[in-house]
Amino acid sequence: MILFDRLLKKHLLVAIGLSVLLFLISLINRSIHIDDAWLGEQAYWLSEKGFVKSELLRGFAGYETRQYVYHKLFIGIGALFIKLFGFKLYALKSISLGFLIIFMITFVSFMRKSLVINEKIILVLIILVLIHPLVFEFSFVYRPEIMLMTIGFISYILLYYSIQDNCRKYAFFAGVVAALACITHLNGIAFAAAGFFCLLLSQRAALCFLYSIGGLIISSIYFIDLYAIKEIEAFIFQFKNDPALYDNDYTGVWHYIVNIIDEHKRFFRDPKTLFFSSLVLFLYISEYKSMKEHALLNTYTLLLILFFAAFAQSKTNKYMLVYMPFLYLIVGICLENMRQNKDTSKVKLATTLIIAFITVSLVSNIRFILKNDNSLAKHKKISQIYLTNTQKIVAPMPFIFEEIDKFNIQSVTLYKILKNHGNLHDNGSLAFFKTVEDFGNKAIIMNVNDFEHFDMTKPSIGEIRGNYLLVDILADLYIFKYVGDE
Asked: For the whole model, what pTM was predicted?
């Protein structure tokens, strides 16, 4: 008897319910991710001014005047949410959750209609998606990966039907949606390129042309605010100096080759990805012959990985979310083949790997929940007690939530960027404080881990660094007040 025949549907539905419950528990006092603030501020200014700028990064690359390089569609949706609900942390976080729901509906529908996967295996896949540590975390973070994953997958589905039915309309809209992925995040170019070359390799010239036309029309929206030479120059300057691209050199071919060679690091970077990657690898090797019947999925997934590996600026595990729809399709197809062939030995090993993945994921997710804290309450306390009659401050990026209208906030992250670019004052251990003072800031809030980055030891309450007095330590936050005028 094969495992999937033994499983009862009601048991799987209970497991899905428990997975959802665990996720809902994680929403209680969900910690503020730095990108909630980094990208949230961009959406805030777009909703307020009609264009993107950054006070958090005031003093770098002209961001305080206008920012041209950003995730335009994603930030646009964030600005819309701010218009509707105000600048609220959970409102912004819910955008990714909304796209996860869209993805799950699309994913399940595609498996049922086009791949004819057994219902119990579909339920198993839903569980595996919901408990994946990366999905668990980033489906409630204001970052574009979940949205990018969803839009990219929809583009693939349209591509699938365009090739299957030789449908020009689907090809055109596949290009349109792939372009939407590009303006959601520039890494979305990997989806556009994968689709283009799949059509090219399948020798569908007409479909390839229409796909390209749809893609070019929509992707041009990314450059809609570059209407003069000055804006184009500013865009190029900001792109070259983007903090996320600081350590990358995109001018040489060798850079892209090394990126592709090193892509395995993303799949096996840590337990969050290692166990799932091992499951996918085992299933694909075991069912290699049957996977040959899914030529488009094989080709598209390989091209997506190659293009994304070449262009993505780092091997951070969160970018693996982009591959998730296709890796889960591979898992579903392979499990279905094993079920039909009643290959008991393969199923047992696959089951062991699934249980290992679930166990590691649950441990990771519970640890993640235990790290949650009520940062908003902590920020409010600092604001009310220590920052009265203070306007210009330096603080961690997350401090902007509930405080952005009260203060002119520069981020500690800005000073890390300035240090990386060699733009801090040459004052040894006091370089940070001297630069902060030059910007006219009257208070500093630093995380305990920030001191090491600036080559400083942790001070004690009452100690003065430069012209700043450490007045208190609240949990992991150090609070300094300016005393230079005294």
From this structure: 0.94
Domain total of the chain: 2
Parallel, antiparallel, or unpaired: how do β-strands 392-395 and 443-447 relate?
A: parallel
Q: Tokens for 58?
A: 């005031």
Decide the pairing of beta strands 477-482 and 443-447: antiparallel
- pLDDT-derived band at 389 (thresholds 50, 70, 90) equals confident
Cα separations (Å) of 463 from 242, 425, 469?
35, 21, 6
Q: Rounded CA gap, 142 and 92, in Å? A: 6
For residues 385 and 340, state if they share a domain: no
Which residue in the block uniquely carries the two structure tokens 């007409």? 206
- 393 φ/ψ angles, rounded to the nearest 5 degrees: -135, 160
Cβ burial of 271 (10 Å; 0-12, 13-18, 19+) is middle
In this structure, the chain runs to a length of 486
E strands of 358-411, at which residues? 392-395, 408-411
| 466 neighbors 431 (Cβ within 8 angstroms) | no
**Final residue of a structural domain among 347, 370, 393:** 370
Q: Return the closest-CA partner of residue 411 out of 57, 36, 44, 35.
A: 57
- The pLDDT-based confidence of 1 (bands split at 50, 70, 90) is very low
Point out which residues pair with 446 in neighbouring strands: 478
Q: Is 40 part of any domain?
A: no
Residue 281 exposed, middle or buried by CB count within 10 Å (0-12, 13-18, 19+): middle
